[in-house]
């Protein structure tokens, strides 16, 4: 098999593998979701501007699901009412229940084994799926970024061949000769640039959204713990100090 044909086949296999991995991760995440939105949420679906979970693969890749909100912002200045209602799965209560279950199971396991509770393990169990998917998208975006520099060398070689034609080209080019064409390689470089931006934006979106979910869940857990403290054993100074430490911890988690 020619090198160019092998590279083309490898790129096609990589694209098919990406779709399969994404579909598998999507199925796993949907199967383990414990708090599904009920039938009552169907009535408010049109009032929600964040429809990422309900969009298909191509809409998620191109962020086409955000087009209605962008169109509203194009026609008139956006107001708070234009943002719509927050989906049930993105609310603080949902994220708190999800993280609290993980934290409770970790606390029971730590008490059984006689060790300290590991919040890092709770973080990992809570958001490793989307973080892994975002990392995969980032890796694929970086790999696709090599197509541009390698394609430029092919274009330069094609220009040199046109300036100094040594042999007569056959009527029907082979796959290797087709990929060596400067115009074809230019189109491939253009598609690779689009793919790199798509992978990069998808990775950033997944990591940021999952980080916000983790921060909200941890913030709700900290304040839920603070509300369970005995009020008569805490003076004003200690209460302010505890609140300051809680806010400081949350800021550090947000920085991570």
UniProtKB/TrEMBL annotation:
<feature type="signal peptide">
    <location>
        <begin position="1"/>
        <end position="23"/>
    </location>
</feature>
<dbReference type="GO" id="GO:0016020">
    <property type="term" value="C:membrane"/>
</dbReference>
<protein>
    <recommendedName>
        <fullName>ABC transmembrane type-1 domain-containing protein</fullName>
    </recommendedName>
</protein>
<dbReference type="GO" id="GO:0042626">
    <property type="term" value="F:ATPase-coupled transmembrane transporter activity"/>
</dbReference>
<keyword id="KW-0067">ATP-binding</keyword>
<dbReference type="GO" id="GO:0005524">
    <property type="term" value="F:ATP binding"/>
</dbReference>
<keyword id="KW-1133">Transmembrane helix</keyword>
<dbReference type="InterPro" id="IPR036640">
    <property type="entry name" value="ABC1_TM_sf"/>
</dbReference>
<dbReference type="InterPro" id="IPR050173">
    <property type="entry name" value="ABC_transporter_C-like"/>
</dbReference>
<keyword id="KW-0547">Nucleotide-binding</keyword>
<keyword id="KW-0812">Transmembrane</keyword>
<keyword id="KW-0472">Membrane</keyword>
<keyword id="KW-0732">Signal</keyword>
């Amino acid at each position: 098999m020619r090198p160019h044909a092998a590279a083309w086949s490898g790129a096609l296999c990589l694209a098919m593998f990406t779709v399969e991995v994404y579909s598998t991760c999507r199925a796993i995440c949907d199967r383990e979701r414990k708090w599904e939105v009920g039938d009552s949420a169907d009535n408010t679906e049109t009032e929600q501007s964040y429809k990422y979970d309900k969009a298909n693969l191509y809409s998620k890749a191109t962020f086409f699901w955000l087009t209605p909100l962008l169109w509203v912002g194009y026609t008139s200045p956006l107001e708070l009412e234009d943002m719509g209602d927050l989906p049930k799965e993105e609310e603080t209560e949902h994220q708190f229940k999800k993280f609290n279950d993980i934290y409770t199971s970790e606390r029971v396991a730590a008490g059984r084994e006689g060790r300290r509770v590991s919040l890092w393990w709770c973080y990992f169990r809570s958001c490793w799926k989307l973080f892994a998917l975002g990392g995969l998208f980032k890796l694929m975006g970086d790999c696709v970024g090599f197509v541009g520099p390698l394609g430029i060398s092919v274009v330069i070689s094609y220009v040199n061949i046109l300036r100094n034609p040594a042999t007569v080209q056959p009527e029907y080019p082979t796959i290797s000769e087709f990929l060596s064409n400067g115009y074809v390689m230019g189109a491939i470089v253009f598609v690779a640039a689009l793919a790199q931006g798509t992978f990069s934006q998808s990775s950033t979106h997944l990591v940021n959204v999952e980080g916000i979910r983790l921060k909200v869940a941890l913030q709700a857990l900290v304040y839920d713990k603070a509300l369970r403290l005995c009020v008569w054993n805490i003076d004003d100074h200690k209460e302010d100090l505890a609140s300051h430490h809680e806010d400081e911890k949350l800021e550090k988690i947000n920085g991570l």
